[in-house]
Amino acid sequence: MMTTLRKRLCQSLAATLLCLGSGIQAAQFVEFDNYEIHYNAFNSSFVKPEIAQQNNLVRGKRRALVNVSVLQKQSDGTLKAVNALVSGSATNLIGQEQQMKFNKIDEGKAIYYIGSFGFTDAQVMRIGLDVQPDPNKPAYTINFEQKFYTD
Fold this sequence. Notes:
Shape: globular
Number of helices: 2
Low-confidence stretches: 9-25
Radius of gyration: 15 Å
CATH class: Mainly Beta
CATH superfamily: Domain of unknown function DUF4426
Order of helices and strands: HEEHEEEEEEEE
């Protein structure tokens, strides 16, 4: 069963995809070794104020959120949410970089890492993530571009 935050984040992602058109696929994840790293980025104003407040998220029409979750493949084929070290940055096309600080949201069976950054209307951002589920191994790197719009 999906948790309330996960439902809201999925709803936010769905709303974002409707606004941005078909240029982005709903299922954004990569596989490294025995991990699936799921990620998405969307306008923070899509998160309801009470959900943002409960999770210390800053909302704004020029603020985006990046959501990262790490699932480890178990021997029985199931996936289990695991902790990770997550860092990242958002860079515009002229090279102005914003470092993101990720907040961990642990709901027991679901673990999320949420970071944020600012943008201007119709701005393309290059997002770089370093995700390290195993502190004894190097981080996995994920890079993607996305255009953001104010609402």
